[in-house]
Design a protein that fits this description.
The complex is a heterodimer. Chain A is built from 17 helices and 14 strands. Chain A is mainly alpha-helical. Chain A is globular, with a radius of gyration of 24 Å. By secondary structure, chain B is an alpha+beta fold. Chain B contains 18 helices and eight strands. Chain B has a four-stranded antiparallel sheet with strand order 3-8-5-4, covered by helices on one side. Chain B has a two-stranded antiparallel sheet with strand order 1-2. A two-stranded antiparallel sheet of chain B has the order 6-7. The longest helix of chain B has 38 residues. Classes of the chains: A mainly alpha, B alpha+beta. The interface between A and B is large, with 113 and 71 residues.
Amino acid sequence: MREQVPSGSRPLLLARSGSRRRNRLRDLERGVDPVVADERRRAVRALLRRPLLVDAGTDQVLVNRHKEWLILWFSHHAGWELHVDPEACRLVKRPADIADDSRPCRDPGSKDTPLSRRAYVFLCLTLGVLVKEGRQLTLQRLAETLAGFGHSDATFSDAGMSLELDRRETRRDLVHALRVLLDWRVLFAVACDDDHYVSSGGGDVLYNVNRPVLSRLLAARQPPSMVHAEDPDERMHEIWQGKVAGAVGGSEDWQLRELRCGLFRRLLDDPVLYYDDLDEAQLAYLKKQRGHLVREVEKATGLVAEVRAEGIAMVDRDGDLSDYSLPETGTDGHLTLLLATSLANRLREGKCDPVPVSDLEGETRRLAAAHPQWRKDACIPGSEVGLTREVLRRLRALGLVRLVAEPVPAVVALPAIGRFGLRDSRSDGAGQEQQEEMVLL
Amino acid sequence: MPDYSVFSHLTAAKSEDYRAVLAAFASARSEFVIHLRPAEVAHGAGLVEGEVELLLEQLAEWGNLERNRDHGDAVTIEDFYRTRYLYQLSGRGEAAERALLVFAESVDEAGELQAEALREIIGYLQAICVLMAASEVDLPKLHQQFSHLNARFEEFTVQAQRFMQFLQGTLDLHGLSEADFVDYKDRLIEYLERFVKELVSSANEIAGKLIELEGAGVRGCFDGLARQARADALVPDDAELLAAERARREGRWEGLRRWFLGGTDGVSQAETLRARAREAIPALLTALQSFHDRRETGSDRSRDWRCLAGWFAEAPDDATAHRLWRVAMAMGPARHLRINEETLGRRDQSAEGARTSWLEAEPMWLEPRLRKSGRSTRGGRPPEIVDFSKERDALRREAERENAQIARAHALLATRQPVWLADFVKLDPVAFDLLLDLLGQVVTAAGRTDDAGEIEYPVGATSTDGSLSIELWPPRTDGEDAAIETADGVLRGPNFRVAIRPSDGMSAGADMAQVS
């Protein structure tokens, strides 16, 4: 089977075939003492949390120490490649499917807002420029080159996207993209002349380029420039699957392995795996192999399996293996918890029809009035629309609700939200009050 | 400032022609023909005779050539009427030619690390040692050996320097194919390793010989050597030139010494060369790495990124852009729901399993405060800090009192001189406790030695807190018992002779030596 052999791991060429890899893994895992097992667990969690580790301190040290086991484990169970160099560790976490839009690239400098489309464009173009440049680059030079692309390439103007850096919004997008690159340590700011680039377009910054990291970024199986499809979904499918035969063809072993890897990836990366989302083959496999899969994930990551009739959720004790957390502190977190509880209670009582978003907005308004200690702008009338939208985004990202658009925008609660409900018998002193607060719909 | 006009022809208009003329002179010289006529020059340089005459005149003006009247017979009538000159390379012209030759060589040549040269240098030094050791120094032979040594050393250093520069330059490795590069790398590493090994073993030996020679008084020979060198000169006894020659020899010796033994800053050139040769290997491997990187991220990669950028631009909405991002970069964080220990504990007690629905299973337990206020810790003012200073003072006073009591007891007991126990007539409780403790320790110690046979006096011991030490001698055989009065009663026992002193870590034996 065609597979990318990780560089720096030539001896693992021998472990290419499945059984040899399995045997080697077993050898490495035999008689392992608890300290080593704990270190390995931490390394796995570090990589799951942040797949590109550069200058990451202890985490990187642990990954380097156990790199043989890690490379084998990720490759065997999840079908993910891991490249470990002295400078950087990169886990190529190919997603289990191409439908997830809840994990955008986030700008670390502006409170984790997702990048806009133009910022994505700038990010890719900058990477294209960096690949050809030498070891250093300045902001102004980069800006000139990007503007040049805008002129020479008709794709951008056809799509209605202007790459001219004379407007504030455009410059801000460029700065977002550069901040992402700084966060990944692809760029390193050596000298900063002036911080007013966004507002005035002046000022310059000198960057050092980290070439080894640069070569590890793209995760496409197929080079995008060789893909000729026009439809976005098709394009995504091609760079995700590569030219290896998809569902058609391939030996049975290979198909089974793809199945297993797909399930494993979901367990590692996604909050909840619902049986309803799986197709027949996957469901059949899962029914037989659930115990093994779940046990392997538990052992290697320290997550706890919550197996229920509707699906499996690998839940985290420590709370640091997720970008969203429920419950969280802050106004958004509190509101999310309250709305989740209300939806959960409703579902537990048996009402499973969709809840219109407007009802939830009304709920938010009432709650905002009842909680004066929230953020100031949460009490302004009209803010409940934005707040509710944010809460629904989180709940959707955590696999707890689904949004429907017909006939009215509504929310369908998914079974896993039931774990946030309140049992009547557990009043805990404040239970009665809680029930009054949650005026159910 | 010397006159550099001999080099003017290099930047003049017809510099190629000038070079051709001078090359003709140089090649004639190699056949031992010194003087050339314009016709011969024209033939040698492949130019027209009329042009050549002008060139030759210009070169003579600049000082590259010297011009003398041609006193030979004319061959034709025109020759007779024309002023004929003979040209030869002047001294400065020759020097210029040599310089240009060296320049041409250095630019093209890659240099080499001559491991053989080191062995030869050792050989010459060995020969010099032998000559110096003879009762009468054979100056001609010595001179010859020194000449060889200098020449070889000169070549070695020049070549080594050139090689290191070349190495620096090729580490960029543009345009090499991978197979070529791997081959080159292996050969280079082998070459460097061989050289370093030779350098390490020879440098020590050479340094040793240099020191030996200095000890044998080689510097004293420089005078004689200088005289020997000038033996063939026109004026052999010119004092100034002799001194200059001597200075030159001294300088060369100094250079040799510095190269292998190191100067005032301590690092010898040999060390530096070795360090640089060794550094070259990791530098080479880094170059290989970047070579690989460049190969992987070649122009194809750049096109890939631009293509991807186009796709982002064509994405119909943000959601599609985010999906494309996730598929193309695969760098998203994992996401998982949380659980806490309380919930796990409660679940252990209930009978849930894989068939229970989420809607009926035990929900996640959260603090009521969390649901009520969104925070898990209590807000508000932190509790007041209680002031315990009064209690602390009281404790401190108590501690001081106790310490004072113990100090008094020490002062009372630690007489340092041997006394009879009976001399402690009356003791307060603290001192008494201390004495009892000391006696207990020392009597036990005495009891222990008794098993071996004879007791050896004095028997020494320290108190349990280590602050006092005691030595014990047997009581007077005819003496009466000691009786010490205390608050609890009267202690009667054998009237030992004791010496109590503050213990400061010295052994009992040393103490005794001081006392006696």
